[in-house]
Amino acid sequence: MVSALSVLAAKDSNLRFLLVAYMVAPTFWGLDAFYLSQERQYRDLYNDVKKKQESEIDFSMDATPYKKGKNTWLCCLAASTVWTLYVTILVIMLLAGFIFS
Question: What's the pLDDT band for 5 if we cut at 50, 70, 90?
Answer without folding.
Answer: low
